[in-house]
Amino acid sequence: MNHAIVVQGLRKKFGHHEVLHGLDFTIDAGTVFGVIGPNGAGKTTTMRCLLDIIRPSAGTISVLGEDPRYGGPALRRRIGYLPGELHLENRTTGRRVVEHFSAISGPVDSRHVDALADRLNLDLDRQTRKLSKGNKQKLGLLQAFMHRPELLILDEPTSGLDPLVQQEVHAMVREAVAEGGTVFLSSHVLSEVQQAADSVAILRDGGIVTTSTVEALRDAALRKLRFRVAGAEAHDVGALLARVPGVANVAIRDVPGDSAGALEATATLSGNVQPLVRELARINLTDLVLDEPDLEEAVLTLYTEASPAPARNEVRHV
Ligand SMILES: Nc1ncnc2c1ncn2[C@@H]1O[C@H](COP(=O)(O)OP(=O)(O)OP(=O)(O)O)[C@@H](O)[C@H]1O
Fold first, then answer.
1. Which candidate, 268, 274, 276, 278, places its Cα nearest to that of 308?
2. Which of 6, 135, 187, 204 supports an S-S bond with 62, CB 3.0-4.6 Å?
């Protein structure tokens, strides 16, 4: 597959302070790649290096087959960029801003600009100083998308937008990809990346903790499991759960007030549910709850732990 972006050993220092410590990643053409990470992780710095707004201290970058240092305006025209913060002059209108950016990114079809403004519910004739944070964000998005670029680099695209407009932006991202484009977006909200991206990199303290597909992240995430069983001994239930790969944090207790001796078990599961289902089919289940995988928790663990400890398959009878 064609690569839209290839980054190898990217380092960036501000003075003596290194904020990117050798990033390596590739983005396949025609896909959406999301980078998530807490504030200060280095998402914006990475994007600015890709656009040659700032220069890397070390490493190599290829954007649409070119080195951004030498791509100049011709390469810039093939890219749509939404900066984290759009700096706007006060005494102007959205339409003037669009005209200004068209001169850099053009050619731009004015009917397409009007259609995008319509979709985003943005009044281009308002003074920019009167625009709310959300409306400024819409203007930033409009100028990024308006020339139908091959590559979109979007720094926190839905920040400050209401949920309906967020959905519209996700639709615009999908359409860009359907037309053959590539999207690199950043977010510190997992649900956004989960909805919009095919692959995700988790960035922490200037290093990539992991790169994975959203599906694989979901598979690795923990689910909470709770079930009740009648006519079984606690140690048999424990032994059964111990045979299931990915089951951990097992606790088995008597159901209070149940004279028939029912048991309730709780545990966590990561990975495939099939082996669990096979084992549970052997016992007389009276209730079963398996939660949705908690991706948020999985990612928070990756934010805070250098390497997450493997789940221990320990049985506890309480
Ligand atoms: N021009 C600069 N001079 C000095 N340090 C900088 C500069 N730009 C960024 N940094 C530092 O680099 C680190 C990464 O910042 P960056 O803005 O890339 O993070 P981010 O992941 O985009 O965070 P956020 O979600 O808050 O936007 C931070 O510690 C920041 O203070």
1. 268
2. 6
Query: What spacing in Å lies between the alpha carbon of 42 and ligand 1's midpoint?
Result: 6
The preferred substitution site among 45, 53, 186, 303 for testing ligand 1, maximizing ligand atoms within 8 Å of CB, is 45
pTM of the predicted structure, to 2 decimals: 0.80
Q: Which atom of ligand 1 is nearest to the CA of 203?
A: 21
Q: What is the pLDDT of residues 140-175, one digit of tens each?
A: 999 999 999 999 999 999 999 999 999 999 999 999
8 A C-beta contact, residue 134 and residue 165: yes
**What's the pLDDT at 193?**
83
The residue whose CA is least distant from atom 2 of ligand 1 is 14
Confidence of residue 301 (pLDDT cuts 50, 70, 90): low
In the chain, the domains with their CATH numbers are: 3-218 (3.40.50.300), 221-317 (3.30.70.120)
Pocket test of ligand 1: the residue of 10, 44, 46, 57 to mutate, having most ligand atoms within 8 Å of its CB, is: 44
Which of the 8 DSSP states describes residue 198? Answer: S
- Give the highest mean pLDDT range of 36-50, 58-72, 183-197, 245-259: 58-72
Please tell me the residue having the least CA distance from ligand 1 atom 28. 40
Ligand 1 pocket residues where CB is under 6 Å? 14, 19, 37, 39-45, 84, 188
Beta-strand pair 17-28/3-14: antiparallel
Q: Which residue has the higher pLDDT, 107 or 253?
A: 253
